[in-house]
Every structure is written in C-alpha cells, then in structure tokens.
Amino acid sequence: MSLVNPLRPLPIPNPLTEPYWQAALEGVLKMPHCLSCGQFHFYPRSLCPFCRSDALDWQAVSGLGEVYSYTVVHRAPSLGFKGMLPYTVGIISLDEGPHLMSRIVGVPPEEIFIGMRVNVDFESQNSEINLPVFVKSLQAPRVVTPKENA
Amino acid sequence: MGLNEAAIVGIGESACGKVPGQSALQLQTAAARAALEDAGLQWSDIDGLITTPVRVEAWNMPCGVVASHMGLRPAYLSTLDLAGASGAAMIHHAAMAISTGQCETVLCVAGQNLLTHQSRSSAVQVMAESGAAHSQFEVPYGPLVASNYALIAQRHMHEYGTTVEQMAEVAVTLRHHASLNPNAHMQKPLSIREVLDSPMITSPLKRFDCALVSDGAAAAIVTRMDRARDLKSTPIKLLGQGYGLSHSYVGDALQLPLSGAVDSGKKAFQMSGVRPEDIDVAQLYDCFTITVIIELEDLGFCKKGEGGAFVQGGRIGLKGALPVTTHGGLLSAVHPGLGGGFFHVIEAVRQLRGSAGERQVADAKLALVHGNGGSIAIHCTLILGV
Ligand SMILES: [Zn+2]
C-alpha cells in the first residue's frame, strides 16, 4: 500500500452513501438492490431507477465485471494526483449490471482493453476510507443472484 | 401568442481570448452594450434578463448581481443552469417570458474571465471538481473533465470503429473556421498531424481534442416580433426547440455513446416542421472533438456510428454539405466555461443575417444550434430561421 497524498480529494459519505463506504472499509463491495424488481443499481438513489420502488437494501456483489471503457490520464486534475501519473480511470460494468467509475490498477495501460475481466480490490486511503479499485481478473464470469448473497 | 412572436434582434461579444484586466461583470457589460448597439436599442428598453452562473466568483443569485451591475430593474429575471446547454436554453426561456407577457425585451448574457482569473491549471482543477464528476464516486479516482469524454470516445471507437484521425478532423476544421473569425482566441491553422502529435491529455484525447480556456462574454437581445420588425436588422425567429437528458454522470450511464441529443433533436425538428437535411448550418457544441461526432449522429444528420466518417472529406467545412460551428467553437474560438455555448447562438444569428464575413455560408436560411452539458448528458436544441 502506497502512502496516500493528503491533497487528493476523498469521498465524504452521507446518509445515502454511508452503507457503501462502510462495506468498503470491511473489504466488501455492496450495491443498492431493489426488493421489488430484484435489480441492482448504482449510484445510490432514493427510488429504484427501474421500477420506482422505495423498497431498497444493500447487498454484497461478486466484485467481478469487465472494463466498459477506460482512459489513461496523463495530466493531473489537481496536485494530489500528480505523483500517480499516468493512471488508468475506467468504467466497470459489474456482472450484476451496474456501472461504476474506478481506477484499474496493477495492469500496464497498454494491456488494458474494453471487455477485459476485472475484480474489485480496495486501496486504503485512511482509517475511514477504502477506495474500491479494480485489478485484472483470472476468474471466469459468474453471475451472482441476490439470493446467493442474502 | 406563440414563441414565434419573439425574435432575436441584437447580438454582441466582448473581446475574447486572453483579455487581462476585465472581470466577469465587465466582460458581460461589454457584450450587452454591443448587443444593444447592434439592435439599435437603449438600456431602458430592457425589462427582462437571463444569465448563467459563473465559476470565477461566488454570486448569490447571478441574475440579480448582473442586473444590478448594469443598472437594470427587470420585470422578469432568471439564472439558468443546464451546464453547457444553458446558452441555447437562454434564448428559449427569453421567448417564453415574452410570449407569456412577463416582459417585452430580454437581455441574455453570459461569460467570464475564466483564463486570466486563474492559471490554466487551476481552471482545470476547478472544472474537475465543479460537479461534472460525482464528488464521492468519481472525483476520488482523479478524472479530468476531459477524462469523462475520453471514456465516451474510447467506447465510441470500440463500438463503431471511430478513429483518432476522424476526431482530429473536427479540430482542424473548426480551427480553420476560427482563422476567419477576427475575435477568435486561436487563429493559427492546424493540421491533422499537429493534432495527433499534440500532448496526450487523457487517452485517446490530446490537447487539440479539448476545448480552450478563455475569457469572453456574449449577449443577445430578444424582443416581441411586432417590435422587432421596426428595428434595423432582420429578426431571427425561434422555430422550434427541444430538451433531452440521458443520464447524470458518465459513470452511471448504461449506454454511453448515446446522448440526450436524440430527444432534444427529435422535439426541435418536430416542432419546427423541418428535417435534418433542411438545415443550412449547424452550430454544434464542441467541448471535445468526440462531442461533435456524437451530436451529428444523435441529431439525425447521419446514422449512429457514422459520425466519424461524416466529419471527413470537408463535409463539415464552410463549403461542405453541413457547415458546423462556423465561428470556431469552444475548440478554437472561445471557451469561458458555462457561457461558451452562447457564442454558438450568436454565430447562428450572424449566419442567418448573412453577416458572417469571410466565413459566411452561402444562402443560410435555417440554422440549428445545439448545447450539451455534463458528459453528453443534458441537451438543448434550437432551430432558428429568418
Ligand atoms: Zn426496482
């Protein structure tokens, strides 16, 4: 684990997002899940974006997915990221459906491609924040139904 | 009384590019004064004001700050924030205010000293942390605003085979347009090679695929049609408009290369009763080169996936089948943040009046203006005519 630059912006959890960051601190990726239609979504919302139900909970997901898109950043948005350049920001399409932005780590940028299998890992930022990142996965795709997690 | 009872009768710009010694309010005042002069109207004629927020100063109620600075006590005023789509939407909102009898003559004004207020690098940071990326789920990973569009471009290339050369063609064409615009920030011609060799910012986007950071403001006067007929220039009518929203953040968009322009364009064409092939000139929002390619597709100028091929062979140049963003756009003319898309409206008016000088498109009778905000998320399309 590298030292984290204190200038880097960190998430400030709020009541809507707190379960996500709490789970991340425990090394688990959780996603908002709809008890009415069974679908996962992200980012967190007050109503399911698919059926508008407010019967939502958080469930652990497999952490498996694939690269939906990526970009190798060569110019830092602020001082805190300068020492990391170049780094790869990606959008991950989780096997359970939701997309999320993350960083793809441990893979040389030229080896990253759309469709590459990845799985979640966590980068500790401080005692309160673990940031989910993604690494190249050696596992085959696996579809996790919400029941398996319950 | 419908929206066609209002018309654009005056346009103006401040000095654009690097304009030291001018605050946002001074730039906006210069643009407003130029628009009044262009219309042949007085400050006392204005009884409505629409503006957008600025980034360089914290203004509570920007429309109130701007009105007060200009000595106006408008009967109707509003601050509009649809990010990059604000410029186009201001004209529609002015027409609505007039057609519902709130006021008779609206000043729309936007712009700021985004370049000289701060260094380019702090402007980049301000934009990156301004809300374009989600503060909890995106900003901590370090994306530039350009990275959001790079993710879109990479996906577009993957799905449709779009190339970096095709994106470069957009930058080169718009720079040529800017070279014929005396008020443009960047006027030196560019080659495809120079675009491809420019520093990589966030792959696949290079320096010249990205919008400038500039100082500048633009203004337009919208008034009642019965009044417009007595003024000195040809009144420009709003024939149709539409809005569209596809997602909020780039990270949660499930169908990335598809934008809300599909909906905004469909509505604007339906309302105006014209088709994409009827448009003589299209002022498309161009925060990045890929944006133009996606707008061409989603507005229906070509099929989805064919935008890359469409921009090649001079098709979007001044003598092409569809001249695009003829003042040089955000890529080469001026990008002062939120107000940048308003210059596209100003240029459409110039083209329809036949007063665009060396960059005049022959016989321009019908213009489309498109504004895009967020990461191809929020859209406003206008169709303007004489
Ligand atoms: Zn649901």
Question: How would you explain this protein's 3D organization?
Answer:
The complex is a heterodimer of chains A (150) and B (386). Helix content of chain A is 8%, strand content 33%. Chain A has 2 helices and 7 strands, in the order H-E-E-E-E-E-E-E-H. Chain B is α/β, with parallel strands linked by helices and 386 residues long. Chain B has a domain at 3-117 and 213-228: Thiolase/Chalcone synthase (Peroxisomal Thiolase, Chain A, domain 1, 3-Layer(aba) Sandwich), CATH 3.40.47.10. Chain B contains 13 helices and 11 strands. Chain B has helices at residues 24-39, 62-69, 86-99, 120-128, 145-160, 164-179, 192-197, 225-228, 261-272, 289-298, 307-310, 329-333, 342-353, and strands spanning 6-13, 48-51, 76-79, 105-113, 200-202, 205-206, 215-224, 236-245, 281-284, 366-373, 378-385. In chain B, 64% of the residues are buried. The A-B interface holds A 8-14, 17, 42-43, 68-78, 80-81, 84, 87, 89-91, 98-103, 109, 114, 125, 131 and B 124-125, 128-129, 133-144, 147, 150-152, 154-155, 158, 199-205, 249-254, 256. The structure holds zinc ion (ZN). Zinc ion binds next to loops of chain A.
Order of helices and strands of chain A: HEEEEEEEH
Question: Main sheet of chain A?
Answer: 5 strands, antiparallel
Spatial ordering of strands, largest sheet of chain A = 5-4-3-6-7
C-alpha-based Rg of chain A, rounded: 16 Å
Sheet/helix structural class of chain B? alpha/beta
Instruction: Please report the distance between the alpha carbons of the first and last residues of chain A.
Output: 31 Å
The most extensive interface, with participating residues per chain, is: A-B, 38 and 37 residues
Which sequence of SSEs, written as H and E, runs from N to C of chain B? Answer: EHEHEHEHHHHEEEHEHEHHHHEE
Spatial strand arrangement across the major sheet of chain B? 3-2-4-7-1-8-11-10-9
Q: Name the CATH homologous superfamily of one domain in chain B.
A: Thiolase/Chalcone synthase
Hey, roughly how much beta strand do the residues of chain B contain?
15-25%
Poorly predicted residue ranges of chain A: 142-150
Helix content of chain B: 25-40%
